[in-house]
Amino acid sequence: MKAGRAVFQTLAMIPRFFLLLMLLLGFAAHAAPDPAVVRQLAAEESDDKIAAIHKLALTAEPEALAVLQQLADGTLKDAKGEDITINNRVRRELEGALAVLKLIDPDATVRFKAVKEIASNVDAAMAPMLARARDRETDANIRALLVEAHALATLKDADPQIRIAAAKSLATSADPNTKAVLKAQSEPANEAETEVRRAAFQSYLAVEDRLTLAETIGRIFSGLSLGSILLLAALGLAITYGVMGVINMAHGELLMIGAYATYAMQGLFRSQFPAHEDWYLLAAVPVAFFAAAVVGILLERTVIRWLYGRALETLLATWGLSLMLIQAARVIFGAQNVEVANPSWMSGGLEILPSIVLPLNRIVIVGFALFVLALVWVLMNRTRLGMFVRAVTQNRAMAGCVGVPTGRIDTVAFALGAGIAGLGGVALSQIANVGPDMGQGYIVDSFMVVVLGGVGQLAGAVWAALGLGIVTKFIESWAGAVIAKIVVLVFIIMFIQKRPQGLFALKGRFVES
Amino acid sequence: MQRRNFIKATAVSLALATAGLITQPAIAADTIKVGILHSLSGTMAISETALKETALMTIAEINAKGGVMGKQLEAVVVDPASNWPLFAEKARQLLTQDKVAVVFGCWTSVSRKSVNPVFKELNGLLFYPVQYEGEELEKNVFYTGAAPNQQAIPAVEYLMSKDGGLAKRWVLLGTDYVYPRTTNKILRAFLKSKGVAEADIMEEYTPFGHSDYQTIIAKIKKFAGEGKKTAVVSTINGDSNVPFYKELGNAGLKATDVPVVAFSVGEEELRGVDTKPLVGHLAAWNYFQSVKNPANDAFIKMYKDWAKKQKLPKADTVVTNDPMEATYVGIHMWAQAVEKAKSTDVNKVIAAVGGQKFKAPSGFEIQMDPKNHHLHKPVLIGEVKADGQFNVVWKTKGPVKAAPWSPFIAGNDKKKGEPEGK
Q: Which residue of chain A has the CA closest to B279?
């Protein structure tokens, strides 16, 4: 990048250099932006546009800044009243120029963004300015960034001692760009002094270690995220299949119902409470639970209860039900995917280090999975209903003898499993596509989790989901998504061969089996 | 509420079906049947549903102007459901049971490869409206989308140019099937011919319908952090694009740092995505909705009116895109060829399609090559704007002739520029 654009960049940096100088010394000429220069912003050639941007930025006038901001937002019009359009190259120069102007902004968050923008594209000419900005800066975070930017700028200084100091101070960086710069600096072709090369190489190793750590953290997080999604998809099945022994092929469609319930709530909030649109997701949680639970009750009462103990018939019947549910969704909502938007508080990401950004929607989903898991655990272990479910699972006849209404417990347990699947659907709607056949993609994964975890065990499902998530992500990162899917399936087949009862064998026994 | 809707919808569709059965034989005598073979469900429905609507709209337009050879066109719509073998079955059904004169359809190359033998065996006629990887010339197929030299190669050349950001490292990312694999093979050879080293190319594939792009995005970030300017060429197809772009936006990978140029993402695919974080990412096509000319204004208006009349979902925000334009052009060219041949006989029509001209919404009078069954098309590169439309940043001066046999694949120099057995 540096080599190819070096000439152009040096040219481009000169105005930024003077601009910064003037800003920091605190004097600026007062004049409205030159109309000829503003007209030049609408020029055909990118080079002309960029020249005009630098001319405007150089004035450091608030009016000029406003014009540039309009250009960046795409609202600036040309003589014919049409929007002036810019391409990525112009946008990059524009953002750089705006960032320099914003370096003295009183708002710390604006300054922070500006420094980040500058740091991604520093030049040796900017070193004294960055040093001055650094000395004036009061915010510790911004200061640290300025120190790094300054070090990057002085890495090409004529004095080897300054170069060594710069290379050493960059050892604390966690930015992939810095790593690349240090690597280049540690090569004889780019750096004559052995001492500087050594310092740069040592810093390079330190940065690389930090980046490797960041990468591992990122990988574990994406594994956790996939695991939490698998868990949400499979938890309902862990109850209906794991605890009750119903092979429910329509489980994926219960997820779909949860997702469509979320979509419906989004529509309701958009039309009825547009001011609170961001909170539709919270309202969708109970709605999705009950919508899926009601469908679950219908399935259980009308079809599944007549087939208890006949696994093959259940499998075929629920598969048929799943096709009917898919078709119903197609008739009601259309065959195309529907759009479920992330609420604004779930968009964007949390930057932990410059090289890893954890997407907020995934963090929320990990938290949501924990919440659902806690809910299920409390229901199964701390309530009377949970006790009855466990009693019926362990010994149906004996439970019946002591007065547990086994038939009704079956219905309630199935509804609970379906409702939990509905909750899974809410989470899926935030990261995957919502369409009539979205459930089909999760049915295999869900069964995989439950079978691997050990039928009849909620804890097993948790470990299996997390394990599968992390293993998949680690394989994906070196072999690709296609191979990862195959390897995981092969692994599960071999595992079930060795250990048919899954990770955790149920203690006690099924009387009916 | 849901159940009532369901019952109502079922009743309506039953009524429609019955009505169709009754009226069909009455008008069958003086109509020409045309088949529409697009997935209306499954992973490709996101892209293909709009093509079905465009085809129906174009047929209605032609019918309103008196039809073809004085006969009205009658559309037969089938849903192959993103299921490749089902494409072949439905194509056979269209040709043998419905006896259609021509079929407009397919999006993915794997679906086209699946129907090709059927069209060959039954001597049918297919108009295929989507950009593809080339490496094919069938006598029974006309390709109204772009060949690699009309899309992929110019897009990569643009990213190598000064305005495109002087990219030096390349990520070739795609869905795992024939189109991305072949395109990337061509691009790899092209990049090597431009002096890009093997270590500066990363190739990644995901399955159809893949929805978890965390690892891929992390890999791209790492690859881009190695120092040289990196660009991503995406041949991801279908609804996987939505989670891909969502993840891209959330991870803060900006177009000014790592631009992503997509070959299968247009206005329609971006409708389900928040495009604000995606501003500046690119797409290469032969048409964008934002192109300004009278033919395009009329085309957009016609589709918007059609969407309202048909009460399509979210009819007020419908968009037009490149494959829709290609469908529109394809149907008109077929109609013109039938008029010229004065027959719907497949062999006569094939002979007449070559050389047909049509004033396309892309702003050029484009021509079907007399020999190679491909259109001469202009190439446009657009950047995503905040409103989900594209801002054209580069275009060719005029239409470019298609080269279905890419010179970057060994042995292609000996292939003939027209289909065998013609």
A: A88
